[in-house]
Every structure is written in C-alpha cells, then in structure tokens.
From TrEMBL:
Gene source species: Agromyces kandeliae
Pfam families found in the cross-reference section: HTH_17 (PF12728)
Family matches, as InterPro entries: DNA-bd_dom_put_sf, HTH_17, SinI_DNA-bd
Example GO molecular function: DNA binding
Domain Helix-turn-helix: 10-52
Assigned keywords, A-Z: DNA-binding
Name by which UniProt lists this protein: Excisionase family DNA-binding protein
C-alpha cells in the first residue's frame, strides 16, 4: 500500500531532514528523492520519501 505524496518545498524538506537545501537538490538530481515541478520555477519534494535519502550503516551484531 503506497501513501499519497505529501509535497513540500525544498526548504521544508531540508529542515525536516536536518540537511542543507544543497543536499536536497543533490538527492533530487541523483534520483533518490522524488520531486516534481509545479510551474516554471516551483519545485516540490515528496516529504514522505525523506527517509529514503539515508542509507543504513553497517552495524555490529550483538549475541
């Protein structure tokens, strides 16, 4: 089941993810973060996909 996209500005996405807008732009360019253009200059980011930006770190297994 997929959730409906929740579109927000790059600034909102950066604040939520605690990264710079430059990082948001890079992730959009990489194809990691879905974004849409809603006019000649207006770009919106799917805020529900912010968790996909990060990648898991290898961890130690505790026995």
């Amino acid at each position: 089941m997929t959730s409906e996209a929740r579109w927000g500005s790059m600034q909102e996405a950066a604040e939520l993810a605690r990264v710079s807008t430059r990082t948001i732009r890079r992730r959009i360019a990489d194809g990691v973060l879905p974004a849409r253009r809603f006019g000649p200059r207006l770009i919106r980011v799917d805020l529900n996909q912010l968790d996909e930006m990060g990648r898991p770190l290898p961890g130690r297994r505790v026995s």
